[in-house]
Amino acid sequence: xxxxxxxxxxxxxxxxxxxxxxxxxxxxxxxxxxxxxxxxxxxxxxxxxxxxxxxxxxxxxxxxxxxxxxxxxxxxxxxxxxxxxxxxxxxxxxxxxxxxxxxxxxxxxxxxxxxxxxxxxxxxxxxxxxxxxxxxxxxxxxxxxxxxxxxxxxxxxxxxxxxxxxxxxxxxxxxxxxxxxxxxxxxxxxxxxxxxxxxxxxxxxxxxxxxxxxxxxxxxxxxxxxxxxxxxxxxxxxxxxxxxxxxxxxxxxxxxxxxxxxxxxxxxxxxxxxxxxxxxxxxxxxxxxxxxxxxxxxxxxxxxxxxx
Amino acid sequence: xxxxxxxxxxxxxxxxxxxxxxxxxxxxxxxxxxxxxxxxxxxxxxxxxxxxxxxxxxxxxxxxxxxxxxxxxxxxxxxxxxxxxxxxxxxxxxxxxxxxxxxxxxxxxxxxxxxxxxxxxxxxxxxxxxxxxxxxxxxxxxxxxxxxxxxxxxxxxxxxxxxxxxxxxxxxxxxxxxxxxxxxxxxxxxxxxxxxxxxxxxxxxxxxxxxxxxxxxxxxxxxxxxxxxxxxxxxxxxxxxxxxxxxxxxxxxxxxxxxxxxxxxxxxxxxxxxxxxxxxxxxxxxxxxxxxxxxxxxxxxxxxxxxxxxxxxxxxxxxxxxxxxxxxxxxxxxxxxxxxxxxxxxxxxxxxxxxxxxxxxxxxxxxxxxxxxxxxxxxxxxxxxxxxxxxxxxxxxxxxxxxxxxxxxxxxxxxxxxxxxxxxxxxxxxxxxxxxxxxxxxxxxxxxxxxxxxxxxxxxxxxxxxxxxxxxxxxxxxxxxxxxxxxxxxxxxxxxxxxxxxxxxxxxxxxxxxxxxxxxxxxxxxxxxxxxxxxxxxxxxxxxxxxxxxxxxxxxxxxxxxxxxxxxxxxxxxxxxxxxxxxxxxxxxxxxxxxxxxxxxxxxxxxxxxxxxxxxxxxxxxxxxxxxxxxxxxxxxxxxxxxxxxxxxxxxxxxxxxxxxxxxxxxxxxxxxxxxxxxxxxxxxxxxxxxxxxxxxxxxxxxxxxxxxxxxxxxxxxxxxxxxxxxxxxxxxxxxxxxxxxxxxxxxxxxxxxxxxxxxxxxxxxxxxxxxxxxxxxxxxxxxxxxxxxxxxxxxxxxxxxxxxxxxxxxxxxxxxxxxxxxxxxxxxxxxxxxxxxxxxxxxxxxxxxxxxxxxxxxxxxxxxxxxxxxxxxxxxxxxxxxxxxxxxxxxxxxxxxxxxxxxxxxxxxxxxxxxxxxxxxxxxxxxxxxxxxxxxxxxxxxxxxxxxxxx
Lengths: 308, 952
Prior knowledge:
heterodimer, A: 308 residues, mainly beta, Methylamine Dehydrogenase, Chain H, four-stranded antiparallel beta sheet, 28 strands, B: 952 residues, mainly alpha, two-stranded antiparallel ribbon, 35 helices, extended, G patch domain-containing protein 1 homolog (chain B), DUF1604 (chain B), G_patch_dom (chain B), RNA binding (chain B), WD40_repeat_dom_sf (chain A)
């Protein structure tokens, strides 16, 4: 097992779009998206901190965004209850999907980006057909009893984490809904790369590792502070470390196996909640969102030196 | 030459005409004269002289021509609200000018304007409101509420007067005592009298003091009761400017009906009936409102032809001054506000009056009125606060020590001894009480009214105000005294809350410096200092006050300490909180698995085969059925559904359970063979009857139940029983009943099992009429051929399954039955009619039938032979082979619409024409058909009524 290398700040970007609500990598991690409270999405080059494009058209804060597998489209969720499907290059909204009865909290694409899945404050998970011009959802799952905080998917499953403390797994292949009840409101959910486990960030300042197959609780990670914030967590590309934000302006890197804090990344001395983060799909790199800024952290020292 | 000298020449002579030259200068014709504005633009346009220049030379374009407006996207500036464009923005400069449509000038504000002006303006406003685009409310037109309610708004002058204590009906002036007032009234009445008899320049009134004497002895003690002076019309003594005789005014130079005659202070001359109208007319003239038609710019205004002759119309001198004057006047009037006129009287040097304002006078703009709900301004809030504090504590009187009281009462500085000996009493209260009593005793209808103070608020009583004022005065004095005192008695206490009362303040300072906290100690400490005169209650109050004051008026350091917390403390607290281990909650993972059906498209997009080959049971079928997802779907999200309040097993079916469930799904075999699809469609309807078994079923319901599972073809009977025209059976039934009743009354045994034939005998033998004729006759004829399958044919007695009786009838029958049981001797009161007399009814029907028959006979007699072939007219006669099918089907529906009948008649028309019938015939046939349709309509109504009844 390779030794853990500390993360260092690579780039700091002032997004200039109000509070940054979410930061996301695109499919291969070359670009990143930031969702602002000023109703705009911005596309960045995380390495250089270059602003590539701004996508404006939402009527309320943008809460989440995801890039398609070919990086030519973006889907974004907003509190204006709509989901917008953007053309990356033109920056124009291709489609606006409205069916949610409440603000949309999260959105994701399936593997071939033919389906967008969204979850909202109306407790509903909706699957949208992107290929056709259908404007109503393909399927609506209304099993959750509280706000959906995260939706995730893989080849044959859709995961939905909700504030009612349940992770719901919709297995399309089997035609089965598995509800794993943790009991604590789940603020974020991430999948491991091997798709065996789920990382669930809970409201009680604990990140929990769940086994997909059995539904068992594998591990708990404590140390950070969640308070009442919507703190996101993630798993690094090597599936060996778990990252989570914290309300005290830090980010924590835990060892997946023994649950120890490997690094407490001091993002800013000025406080501010590190609520959103994204892990690079391939490299040991992370994005953090704190207040109005986006931070890129990496273990790669060389780049840092170059930057310096 | 001599003559020339004697001639007097006036003016400059015209140049002598040259012989050859014709005068070239023609006067410019009126039509060629053009009025131009200051820009050289033509002012009036159009066919008539009065017109407006609108836009660019009366076009929509500009000098460059007209360009259509280009589309401008408002997308970028969606949020920014567009500035509301006013009509003025579209007006030309000249429209805003003096002669334009919307002249702008100085006007008096509404608050100051006189009444009719206000009214005029409000009218204008209303007119504006009436315009549809401006009427914003839901109800178009004049807002009703505004019509009903009119804000009460006094003039400013009245308001000022009111604030000074004036009330409507009162006069203005200093308050008078009773005596004074009486004198004043006497004087006024006298003046009034003189005024009436001698006019304004009447004799000066002599002072008569007769009345005073008797009043003097009445009461002298009520000097302190004052009254408002009476209101009276003041007499203005106008200085005499002319040398006419007394009260002679000479010929009035103004036109008789003009306004000035009425407004001038000459009372006895002329009553102007048209004053107001004239005034309005004048106003109209003054303000040119831009009427398009009227007097042209070059024309002289017409003389007032209706004005009566008066002296103004005569010239008193040769010089023609009038036009000049007029012009001048006009020019002057331009600068005068509407409704005003310039004062022509020579300016009199007026001595400027120096007003010495009260010391505490604060200028305030009365027009800046605040909303009632707006927060009070600080000053006033404070004022109120202090005032109410005073009242709340109820200590007004206790605040005064004997010295102060003495001051208030105007007593001379007395020795302390005597002051202390005096019993404690509130001088104000007693005094006021007696005063009030006295006033009440004296005057009738004296009501306690509020006085509007400077702030516009009504003080409860004058007394309170007085007390307050007095207090303020005392406090002021005290403050003055304390100012001189050596400052810094106690340097630590910068605040002196009890500065009004020196002794108290001293005590307070001592109390503060002692820094006592214990309640008992404080009482003891204070007791040592407090004067003996202070009552126990006062002492207690003082203690409380001190403690409170000490709390409030703390040194700044303490105040700050309270508000702010050092960061270190906060951090420590936070750490503490953090350190506290959060209660360990044992997380027990629960896993539940339920069936879930992904939609086909979702599977397709995920490139996965549908589970179970898509044969899964769909739990959300109804959701899919809805074309669109509406917001209301979410009203019953999973949280609200009933299922959620139950055990989770109910919530989508478990896989383990679902298999046996499936086996169970086919319910107990239905009463009748049924396709499977129907089972799923009507699971609820099947369950319902089992639930409501205890409800007794009506035969109709039974029939419905029975026939539920039958194919439609077999349900004919049911439909019949529901929809059929129950006329026939009812009549039958009623007759049957009547018969039974008759039999009963005659003591005969009731024959319930009468054969159809027997019943037929009893039936009304008269031939069927009207629509029934058309219904029955073919049936009877064809009865042998086609027996039953008619849907709505009349039901024969034996066939009758469901008999409907109107409730009334049933009741009656019951009653009659009950009556029949009781012996007639036991019943009193008028006997109820057992049954409607049948006999008188029969001849009537018979007669009708006869008439019909006779008509028919007549019809057949008079009709030409050919017409006999036209059997389509009367349904009764239809037995034709071609029409039989159609007719039978038509007749089978008893409640056939009149439209159908008409159609039929129309359809049959060509046939008739084919046979070469005249137009006359067709007319007749039409009439007939109309008649028929009418009848059928009637029957339809009847049927409807019946249906309604049956539903009940």
